[in-house]
Amino acid sequence: MRIDAIGLRIALGGRPVLAGVDLALVPGELVGLIGPNGAGKTTLLRILANLLAPDAGAVRYDGRSARQLGGDALARGLSVLMQGGEVNWPLRVDHLVALGRLPHRRGLGGLSAADRDAVARALDAADAAHLRLRTAGQLSAGERMRVLFARALAVEAPMLFADEPVAALDPFHQLQIMELLQGRARAGTGILAVLHDLPLAGRFCDRLVLLQDGRILADGPPEAVLTDDHLRRAYAVEVQRGQRDGVGYVLPWSRIGPKGEG
Ligand SMILES: Nc1ncnc2c1ncn2[C@@H]1O[C@H](COP(=O)(O)OP(=O)(O)OP(=O)(O)O)[C@@H](O)[C@H]1O
């Protein structure tokens, strides 16, 4: 599935949050959505996922509106991992991950063999199989994030959105999830991931979209987006640059005064 957004605008609490955003997401591409706190990343992701209606503009899923596509087809076509990782029910992990199969189930029947396989694959991929008999309340924040990630993977949708999927994770699991996202993209899934970690975003993403004050400041390959000028303007930071195995990376190094100066 491809997703096209045209001219998205929205105001929240009387303030403009998105001020005219055009974006195209295609199969097989890992896109990192980056930008400072409050830039509008989560709002954009929610509108793209049809969880929030824009004041103006439109989102098309393979050329159709969400209404034309239908809720069931959208739930099978687009899997969303939202920010925060709250789980407010004492649900067992394997049952929680199985919720990802709901869009594929007809009626009130139990899990099919295909559903159970998908749940097992998702738990393995998120390195959460050993947690499957615990309840959500018995997990650390990072473990809970991986379990929720497994639920999103269990949908096996052609398009995956993830809002800060590695924010709560240790370095090992950050690398594991980024490699997993990259692998999924290579296998054809279209992925949009909100990321704050610039070294990971630059290393693993095929394309970065840099949002600032509700507008896209840059959209392209990481090296074209993570320029000194863009990073100064968006984040008010100077970066240190390095290279390993032929891949460049940036490391935020110093602030350049209050945002907007310098
Ligand atoms: N329901 C709301 N009512 C009023 N303002 C809102 C609402 N939701 C979000 N905002 C504001 O919209 C702006 C964009 O929020 P959003 O969550 O999209 O930012 P973000 O780029 O995802 O930020 P972060 O990196 O901090 O997660 C923020 O200034 C936020 O305070």
Description of the molecule:
The protein has 262 residues and is of the alpha/beta class. Helices cover 33% and strands 29% of the residues. The protein is built from ten helices and eleven strands. It has helices at 41-48, 66-69, 71-77, 93-98, 113-125, 141-154, 171-186, 198-204, 222-225, 228-235, and strands at 3-12, 15-25, 30-34, 56-61, 78-81, 159-163, 190-194, 207-212, 215-220, 237-244, 247-255. The strands form three sheets. The protein has a six-stranded mixed sheet with strand order 5-6-7-3-8-9, with helices on both faces. A three-stranded antiparallel sheet has the order 2-1-4, covered by helices on one side. Strands 10-11 form a two-stranded antiparallel ribbon. The model has no long low-confidence stretch (mean pLDDT 93). Residues 12-13, 17, 35, 37-43 line the site of adenosine-5'-triphosphate. Residues 1-238 form the ABC transporter domain. InterPro entries: AAA+_ATPase (IPR003593), ABC_transporter-like_ATP-bd (IPR003439), ABC_transporter-like_CS (IPR017871), P-loop_NTPase (IPR027417). Keywords: ATP-binding, Nucleotide-binding, Ribonucleoprotein, Ribosomal protein.
Task: List its traits.
binds adenosine-5'-triphosphate; 33% helix; 11 strands; 262 residues; 6-stranded mixed β-sheet; Rossmann fold; alpha/beta; 3-stranded antiparallel β-sheet
List the helices and strands and how they pair.
Blueprint: E1 3-12, E2 15-25, E3 30-34, H1 41-48, E4 56-61, H2 66-69, H3 71-77, E5 78-81, H4 93-98, H5 113-125, H6 141-154, E6 159-163, H7 171-186, E7 190-194, H8 198-204, E8 207-212, E9 215-220, H9 222-225, H10 228-235, E10 237-244, E11 247-255
Parallel strand pairs: 3-7, 3-8, 5-6, 6-7
Antiparallel strand pairs: 1-2, 1-4, 8-9, 10-11
Helix pairs in contact: 5-6
The protein binds adenosine-5'-triphosphate.
